Every structure is written in C-alpha cells, then in structure tokens.
C-alpha cells in the first residue's frame, strides 16, 4: 500500500505539472500595456511554486516508499541538520523567495494601481447594476453631467439617471450598452454601482476591479490589440450574476471616432 | 500545573438516558454529539455539492426528484439559476461552519483535550453542554432556510453587503433567507465562544500533576491555539451578524449606503458602508481558515508520530509555528479584498504578512518531512490520511503564493483558482485530518476497531479523487473561469465546459468513497471487532493510559501523574519502543527539549 501510495503521489505531482508545462490552459492573451509585468510575475511565481510543489511531493513520496519498509530492529535516524537546519532553510529559502515575490509583485501592482492616469486619458464611465453594465462617454465638452439616482429608470432607458433637460454637461453625454475604446490610448475608467457589489473583469486586459456601492472608484489601462473581448462580473450580485456581461471593442482610432459619432447620433 | 485532587468535577455520573446521551455534561458525550452533527452536516453539504456539480456539467439535466426539495427552485426537476446559488451558499456555509469548525475542533477537542491534559472534565460542563446545543439550534436555523417561502440566501457563504443587507429586493432568499443565515451564524458564534472558553481554561487550569504546558501533546496545543483564535474571531463575526439582522428588521443601514437603486426604486437607506461588512467578515474569515486547519496540523502530527515511532524533529518548533500561524492569521485578512476597492497601498500592506505566513507553514511541512526521514513508518488508514493531509497542505499552500500577491490577484480573484486553493488547503486537508483522527481514535471513543481494508480503499479513492476535482480548478482559474456562475455562457468559458464535466464525474465518484467511510463508521460502531486493548496503536499520551472507552471521570479512581514529554518513542536504552507519559520509568536519554 505504501509503495502504491508513493507512486500515486508522484504520478499526481507530475500529472498536475504537465498541463502547466504544456500550456494546455494558458493565461488568456495579454492585450494591455501593464499586463507584461503581471505575466512575468505570474511566470516567476509559477516557477517557484512549481519547484516547491514537485520537490516536496516527490520527497514525501520517496520517504513514504523508503521508510515504510523500515524493520522494527532498525534504529531511528535523525535528519541531517535537525530541526534547526530546517528552520534556517525555511527562513532563508522561502523567506528570500517570498520577499522577492513581494517586492517585484508590489512593483507590478503599483504600475496598475499606484500611478495616476495620463492627463490625456479618455474618460469612460461604467455603471454596474443587476445584471448589466452601461457606459457613458462625456461627449465633445469632455464633462459628465451629474447623476440623479432618483431619476434612474430602466423603463425609460435612463440608465444613469441623467437629466438632459436641466444639466448642461449631460446634454452631449453618450450612453451605451457596450464599451468601445481606441487602441493604444489610455482609458480612465470611472466606476460606480447603482445597486449591489459587482466587478469589472476583462482577463485579456489584466483588469479586475470591484464596484463598491457608495464608492466612486477608477482604474486606468491601455489596450494594445484591436479585437472584441468580454467584460464579465466576478462579484456575486444575484440570480443573473452568471449572465452579467458586456463586450469591449478595441478599435482603431478611426473606427472609434466613427463609432462614437454614430452613438452620439443615437442618443 | 495542577494537582487534579483540587479539581473534582461538579457532576456525578449520569443516571437517566436523557442526562447520559442527550443533555449530557460529559465532555466525551458532547464530543461525540459534535461529531454526529458534523457527520450529518457533511452528508448534507456533500449532497448539495453533487447537485451543484451535476448542474454545472449538464445544466439542462433534470435531476429526478429535485422538485421535492424545492418546487420553485427546480420546476420540472431542472435547477433554476437562483436555486444553484442558494445550494452553493448552503454548501459553503454548512461545510465551513458545521463541518470544518465543528469536527476537528469541537468534536475531537471536546473528547480528547480533557483526557490529554489529565482532567476529569472541562471546568464549565454546563457551558459545554450549552455550546453543543446552541450549535445544534444554529444548524436547525440554517437548514430552516430551505423551508421559507423563497428559500435560503443566494449570497454565498461570505454574504457580501449590500446584496445581503437590502432585503428581498436583492433577489430570492435575500429576505428571510439572509435573516435566518445571519441568525444561525450568530447563534453558532455563541456556541464557539462557550466552547473556546472551556478549551482555554482546561488547558491552562486543569492539567494533572506533572503535565507542564510543554508536555502537552501537539493535539492539545493545536486545540488550545485554535480556541484562542475562536474566542477573538467569533467575537467579531457575532456582532457583524447582529448588525446585518438589524439592517433587515430594524430599518438600520450599517452596510447599505445611500442612493442605491434596485428595480427603478431608490432604497430608503443611507450612511452605511459596504466595505465595513467585508472588513468584519474577513477579520473573522481568515482566522477561520486556521480554526479549520490548525486542529488538523495537531491531529496529523499526533497520528504521524505514533505511526513513525519517533517524535517530531522538534516539538517546540511545531508549537511555535502553529502559534505564528494564529498570530499572522489576523494580519492577512485583507488579501481577500485586494480588488475590493480598498486603498491600493493597503493591498501591499496585507500582501507581505500573507507571504510571510508561508514561512511557518513551510517549517511545519519541513518538520514533517524531516521527521519521516529515518522513521519506522507504519501504514494504516490513520497514517495514510495524515500523509495525504501533508500532500494536500503542500498543494494548497503553494497556490497561496499566487493569491498572496495583489498583482496576480487581478487575474485570479473570484476565479476557480481561489476555489481550488481553499478546497485543497482548508476543505480536503481538514477533512483528511478528520478522517485521520477518526480512524486513529475510533477504538478509544467506541471500544471497537474500524475496518482497515475499507479504510485504505476510502483513502486511495479520496486522495486521487480530491486531486482530480481540485487540481483542474486551478487550471480553470488561470483561464479566467469565474466562480459562482450557474452556467458558463461567455464565449471564452464555453470551451472549458468539458473540464467541468470531468470534475463532476470525479466529484460523484469521490463522494461515493465517502459513503464507504460512513458505512464503515456505522457498521464498526456496532459490529466492529472489539479493540484488542486500551492502547491498540502503542501510543504514549494520556488517552492511551485510560480504559477503552474511558470511564465517566476519564481515569477511574486514580488520577494520572505525568513523568515525560508526550512522545517518548524509540528511546535508546528504554524498556520498550514507547514509554507512556504516565510511566515512572527513568529514561537515560529521553526526547526532551529542556
């Protein structure tokens, strides 16, 4: 039984590593400027975690194989270096490893969250609600009109609760059900929820940020590849959570300009 | 350290059926009651997971008879989206609270902590009895969610506000379902607080003559450390649940900010904070992970030592490591909230302690591996589950490297990677700890032996099955597969559905292996061969020096006196390969770290 178990451990350990090594389910393609740091950090972490995983599982299997065969007359042997050696090894090896991961990881995190958006970043507002995203572009004046929660009405298609009759800044605002952005331009995404917690997750964009009712949050990013991607909700928001999604279209500047003009005409 | 003669228990042996088996003051009966509750809860939780997995693999499949569980939730026996979320919420809550907290800590701890410390009982037997019955009521209140009009809550075991706090407008189950959920967990906290008080006092104040703190077995240390965590963590969750209930029934707005609009209606709330719930919940929630797993570390170490015929390389290092895990567990809770909208600098502040917690975890694993080296390992069901625990703890631990880093959490947060991580390290590992404890202590608890062959079959199926279920979860997470979805309709998720089907088949097969365990447990309880003697595994700690099963006051007429550190196996020059703690034999070369 011991030998069977040891073999099973080794097979599981190697079997678990194969899809990683073969890239069977790789990370989704990266279409962001900041994503490279994240992906490098992911690869480094995978290497360190993978080596730790394989080494300790195989060692466990070997010790089970070897020492379950001990005879009652055998003497107990102590691991070379004893407990203190292992404690020092843990501090040195794992301590250095996690310190390195922490420092470099903080750098990757900081590149996304601790930098200010560029002055010419395109502002886009996104509102999450059960179970849809809506987007708002400020129009030619570059300003968003104020939101009046009491005027939010799905029935009247006033998803943001904007008052185009009284608020000058709202008059040219463009509200859409899908998001389009120009390629290689920084986007400053201004996020709020109208009801409960939601999240904005685009795996290819390496962006995930919760919507927190009562808080105005923002993220900024630059998409580098033209295409159509899915924005999905990752924060449990009710029965339609699984189906809460929108499309993100990354377009060339010309296509984007045409699209925004077309959307403005539809308002 | 105390002489037990000063600590006569306040209650005599029970005389009636009710006082012996129902409202018992005896810690051993209470321990078994907790075990039975955890077993029932585990069966319910596992059954729910089967339903969920079938739905995830084959969403349109009609599960025969499902409408009997809920007419509105499963019309035509096909699960609705909201019913999936309701089952998922109940699965998570029942498993975390009523199985993973109850079995390794409350069940085994109640039965064995007083015996291992050399006490006649816990110091507050009435509190102890209340702790179980309060927990039992909590379970009934939780299950009652299935019987209210729109079913139990669908908000997940984390019950994030404001979805959990806005009431029925939030969706099915968000009215009475949430109130029952919060009431149940609030009541559960009371039970844990009463239990923790007893555990702490037993450890500090009820030890027999000669039993210094360092002579306590690693199990006793694990329960002691866990009870300190329980006392502080549940004391935070309970008021959070009270505030949540008040938001429902008293018109308060602790967790609901102003200007929220649901169904075109402006909610009448204002002034609350959404993130307040997350802080309160995770301040409890992360220590809870260790409340579930630290007793397992103790049980597995204890079982392995007996089956390796040697002490761990260092008793103290393991104790200090478990203590470090407990202390650090309070400093890391924010890693659940990296992308929650909390200040991004806080994410870095929470990231470093999370990474640092891998150091004591690694030390524990290295001490286990280093102690296996050169041992005389015996293979039986208990030691197999302990070694399986080590493997799961390693696998679940390394995926923690990823989730400790906010930059990677951007990709992995709320995906199946997280689900795979916590199921391996907190779910499967903790369950393996429970199984190891069961196979190991069954003779002491019942006087009979469990079937070893079926135990080994149970083990190998569970071990392979658990990996087949939870390792692919990590791959799904890396591909961006979001958790808590009842169906995968996104273009990029559809190609992943075959993986979900594979996992479903694995989950059903692994579940059947658990049925083998349950049959073995119940059959052996009544028909298993009698334990050959009071110490079938040749153990050294106090539970093996008393009768099987132990008498009402644990040690009969003569209270134990302890002469040695707990694990005197294979001592050079000793009369046998194990010297019990109560043996007055003088050892010339004992394993003691003075």
How would you describe what is shown here?
The complex is a heterodimer of chains A (about 270) and B (about 600). With about 270 residues, chain A is α+β, with helices and mostly antiparallel strands. Chain A has helices spanning about 1-20, 35-65, 80-115, 255-265, and strands at about 120-130, 130-135, 175, 180, 185-195, 200, 205-210, 215-220, 225-230, 245-250. Chain A has a five-stranded mixed beta sheet with strand order 3-2-1-5-8. In chain A, helix 1 packs antiparallel against helix 2 (about 35-65) and helix 2 (about 35-65) packs antiparallel against helix 3 (about 80-115). The N and C termini of chain A lie far apart (about 70 Å). Chain B has about 600 residues and is mainly α. The model of chain B is unreliable at about 1-10 (pLDDT under 50). Chain B has a two-stranded antiparallel sheet with strand order 1-2. In chain B, strand 1 and strand 2 form a beta hairpin. In chain B, helix 2 (about 25-55) runs parallel beside helix 5 and helix 7 (about 220-250) packs antiparallel against helix 8 (about 275-310). In chain B, about 60% of the residues lie in helices and about 0% in strands. Chain B is globular. Chain B starts with 16 loop residues before the first helix and ends in a 15-residue tail after the last strand. At the A-B interface, helix 1, helix 2, helix 3 and strand 7 of A face helix 4, strand 1, helix 8, helix 10 and helix 11 of B.
